[in-house]
Write a structure and sequence with these properties.
The protein contains 14 helices and 50 strands. The longest helix has about 35 residues. Helix 12 packs across helix 13. It has six domains: about 170 residues, Agglutinin, subunit A (Orthogonal Prism), CATH 2.90.10; about 130 residues, no CATH class; about 140 residues, no CATH class; about 50 residues; about 110 residues, Phosphorylase Kinase, domain 1; about 220 residues, Transferase(Phosphotransferase) domain 1 (Transferase(Phosphotransferase), domain 1). Strand 10 and strand 11 form a beta hairpin. The chain is about 20% helix and about 30% strand. It is an alpha+beta fold and about 850 residues long.
């Protein structure tokens, strides 16, 4: 049964004469109406025998909220409600008194009696709603700037009734969602029936205090979504819920109360949680310079948020087959499972028999199972592990900040995975099902296995170390042979000698450095690349021609300054990307430079080298094929840009930043890319970014001055740092400038060198700075992003982008600082100075020659 946010009190009249009854009603209404006319607008309070009629309002002292009569949507009924004052759209209502008993005309009167009962009456004098309070000495009603309507004793200020105790569909900062065990008073949200009907709808959002507390979204009695247990900083099912400078979240749980509450920490930001009439729980955020509310998050967000999608002991994932059984479990109904009917869930392959060989399989980045029957205790990880193992009915355990040791008995219900965040659970398995090859971490709990595992682990570690030492020694021998003949191809004898030296010491016969097997017919055995950078397979030209259909235009993916990229497919079915170098005089050196660089770079946000081809005048790099091609095909395309919501754009920006940090600081060589732009950022099937095209990149040695000059600046207009474009000086800060331009382009969907209409022909950098200076940063956002994530994060990213494009390189941060600013909301970000705008190619050139300069249009 849905909960009403109002308290309705019935009224009766004593006496037998109908005429007396009618006269009493008329007299009461006339008194209230005359009182309202006399007192007029009462500010933020209502005193005894003072009334509020339709057309009049209460406004909180600070002007934050307003109380009055209104009609929602297309309805003709009138309701007494509270809404935000001066925040568009008009009347964002947060509380309704008479949601079950609407007024049929504009004749409603709100009155406070001498005894302290706040009543809403219609023109017939019938009480439609009342607080039900009595015997209050000197009562007063006040609308606070928190949006709370309170009835209190005027002298003591003791609150006897408040609207915050009777929530409707909205949770405001300071409100409590939960239960008081002392009076069994339960506070929860109930949806409206529709946008035009605030009467209680089908959905509730309610704290379940039993077991380990968590919040459930229900439609009538059916569970739609659950939040997961509290993990110290947020709910397990909401990994994006992090403490920051704008919101403070809190769960209070003790023997007297269990409730969730939150606060807004920044006066320029307001937020509210709403249970929509369609059954979504949503957080909206309003920023002072932003027009309207932005949707911060909502649940359920995807199919895995739906309750128990995969049944008992099943795991839901949005990145693979929706449902999988936990390790050690199989589908309960195999036929139904194959038909994608997963509600039956999974059962154990082997029932737990409380055997000595039982152990645990570790599952990370998950929403923890339903906790209605879980037990919380104050134990360490080791203590929790031991306790669960010694309790024959325990099926899993987890260590959660704020809840200690959680243990489950019976089936594990409603588990889902996340790409990032979430919690870790240890699922108990019998010894026969404890397959460590399928577990990210497994623990077996009997002495012999521990002893044997320890010995085998030591021997394995020793063997790996010996193998790596021997392989490295073999590579050095190959490198020495290569260095004896610089600038020329190795002879077959030298190659064979080098390969034999390595194979004899490592006991291997395969090509080192590849992650996948390569068929013998695809790989040429007369050319190998080493030079101290590792060994990569050389492919025959005929193999590459066949893979790319003779470099067909249909297979052409794009073109850079030094080469054309083709899509290909090898005989074993593997997809590849082929970079075919152009026939330029500088090709051999550029080719060797890029090959040497990529061979040494291993990072998730860098493109991976698979091999190469040198035959006649042909020079080709064989790279991993990236499914979604380059970033520019998304952010500049209005149709595809909608696929990049704010969350995904944030991930892309951070991924590029981490890749640059690796190039500048974390890899063995310090690399300046020199041509960072959207077309050189590739997106894989999950839209993760990978930096590509190292044709003009340069290496800095550890003891070398981290700045160089060149007579041949190469790059792309709009992304080149001013000192590099004008004077040929490049450094790590040159890449930082390019990254800053990328940040602004990803957020806005516009190119830097495009002039901005209505802003005196300025470029994107100048336009972004102008908006930031005026407090209007959000106006730069791409329409496809706006409203999908909070503006707070957007402003932080814009600010970091502007810091990166400072004209003076010394004013720009280094990439490790950039990553910190992007990923930590606790870091103080300095204010950017006005950057230099780039209007035309002529802005770059002085007397210095610029070669291979491109316009990325």
């Amino acid at each position: 049964m849905a909960k009403d946010c109002s308290v309705v009190v019935a009224v009766g009249f004593r006496g037998s004469d109908p005429w007396d009854k009618e006269m009493i009603v008329v007299e009461l209404f006339l008194v209230l109406a005359i009182g309202a006319a006399v007192h007029g607008q009462p500010g933020d309070t209502v005193a005894p025998n003072q009334s509020l009629v339709d057309g009049e309002t209460l406004i909180s002292a600070g002007g934050a909220f307003e109380l009055g009569f209104y009609s929602p949507g297309k309805s003709n009924f009138r309701y007494l409600g509270i809404w935000y004052k001066n925040i568009p759209p008009d009347k964002t209502v947060v509380w309704v008194a008479n949601r079950d008993t609407p007024l049929t005309s504009s004749s409603g009167v709100l009155n406070l009696t001498e005894g302290g009962n706040l009543m809403l009456l219609n023109n017939s004098g019938i009480i439609l709603w009342s607080t039900g309070t009595t015997n209050v000495i000197n009562p007063v009603v006040q609308l606070l700037d928190s949006g709370n309507l309170v009835l209190m004793e005027s002298a003591s200020k003791i609150i006897l009734w408040q609207s915050f105790d009777h929530p409707c569909d909205t949770l405001l900062p300071g409100m409590k969602l939960g239960i008081n065990f002392g009076n069994n008073f339960d506070k929860y949200l109930t949806s409206w029936k529709s946008d035009s009907d605030p009467s209680p709808g089908d959905y509730t959002y309610k704290m379940d205090p039993y077991g380990v507390p968590e919040v459930y979204l229900r439609k009538d009695d059916a569970i739609i979504y659950r939040s997961g247990p509290w993990n110290g900083h947020g709910y397990s099912g909401r990994p994006e819920m992090q403490q920051n400078d704008y919101f403070k979240f809190e769960l209070i749980a003790n023997q007297d109360v269990v409730y969730y509450t939150f606060e807004d920490l920044n006066s320029s930001v307001r937020s509210r949680i709403v249970l929509s009439s369609t059954g979504e729980i949503q957080r909206f955020v309003w920023y002072r310079s932003h027009h309207g509310w932005s949707l911060f998050w909502w649940k359920p967000e995807d199919s895995c948020d739906s309750y128990a999608t995969c049944g008992a002991n099943g795991v839901c994932s949005t990145t693979s087959t929706p449902c999988q059984c936990l390790t050690g479990f199989v589908p309960k109904a195999e036929t139904e499972w194959k038909l994608r009917n997963f509600v039956g869930g999974c059962v154990r392959k082997t029932n737990l028999g409380c055997q000595a060989g039982d152990g645990f399989c570790k599952l990370q980045n998950v929403k923890l199972p339903e906790t209605s029957h879980a037990i919380s205790s104050d134990r360490t990880l080791e203590g929790c592990d031991f306790w669960c193992l010694s309790n024959c009915s325990c099926t899993a355990y987890s260590i959660v900040d704020g809840s200690g040791c959680l243990t489950w008995t019976g089936d594990l219900i409603d588990i889902r995975t996340f790409t990032e965040g979430g919690d870790t659970i240890f699922v108990r398995l019998s010894a026969s099902d404890l397959d460590c090859s399928k577990c990210k971490h497994c623990q077996k709990r009997f002495g012999l296995v521990i002893a044997v595992s320890s010995v085998l682990g030591f021997l394995l570690l020793f063997s790996i170390c010996l193998f790596l030492w021997l392989r490295n020694r073999g590579r050095k021998q190959v490198g020495n042979i290569l260095e004896q003949s610089p600038g020329s191809s190795m002879t077959n004898t030298k190659i064979e000698a080098a390969q034999q030296a390595m194979n004899q010491e490592t006991g291997t016969t395969h090509i080192v450095g590849t992650e996948r097997s390569t068929t013998t017919s695809d790989v040429s055995h007369n050319t190998t690349f080493g030079g101290g950078f590792g060994i990569f397979p050389s492919y025959n030209l005929s193999t590459i021609e066949a893979a790319t259909y003779d470099f067909s235009n249909d297979n052409r993916l794009g073109e850079g300054a030094f080469g054309i990229i083709y899509k290909g497919q090898l005989g074993d079915g593997r997809k590849i990307a082929v970079k075919r170098m152009k026939h330029l005089p500088c090709n051999p050196d550029d080719f060797k430079n890029e090959l040497s660089l990529i061979a040494n770079l291993q990072h998730r946000n860098l493109v991976r080298l698979l091999g190469y081809c040198i035959e006649g005048n042909e020079r080709m790099l064989i790279l991993e094929y990236i499914e979604n091609r380059s970033l520019d095909t998304f952010i500049y395309d209005k149709r595809k840009s909608i696929l990049l919501n704010w969350s995904k754009r944030l991930d892309i920006i951070v991924g590029i930043a981490r890749g640059l940090q690796y190039l500048h600081q974390d890899c063995n060589m310090k690399v300046v890319h020199r041509d960072l732009k959207p077309s050189n950022i590739l997106l894989d099937e999950s839209l993760n970014p990978k930096i590509s095209d190292f044709g003009i990149a340069r290496i800095f040695k550890g003891d070398e001055i981290q700045e160089r000059a060149t007579r041949r600046p190469m790059g792309t207009i709009g992304y080149m740092a001013p000192e590099y474009a004008k004077y040929g000086i490049f450094s790590f800060k040159s890449d930082v400038f390019s990254f800053g331009v990328l940040v602004l382009e990803i957020l806005s969907g516009k190119k830097n060198i495009e002039t901005i209409e209505g802003d005196n022909g300025t470029d994107l950098i100048g336009h972004a700075y102008k908006l930031w200076k005026q407090g209007r940063s959000l106006e730069i956002l791409d329409d496809a992003v706006e409203g999908s994530r909070p503006p707070i994060e957007v402003i932080r990213f814009i600010r970091v982008g502007l810091l990166c494009v400072q004209e003076n390189s010394e004013d720009r941060p280094i990439m490790v600082e950039v990553v910190t600013m992007l990923c930590s909301q606790d870091v103080v970000i300095s204010s950017p100075k006005q950057p230099r705008e780039i209007r035309t190619p002529g802005d770059f050139s002085t007397s210095r020659e610029i070669t291979s300069l491109t316009l990325d249009r």
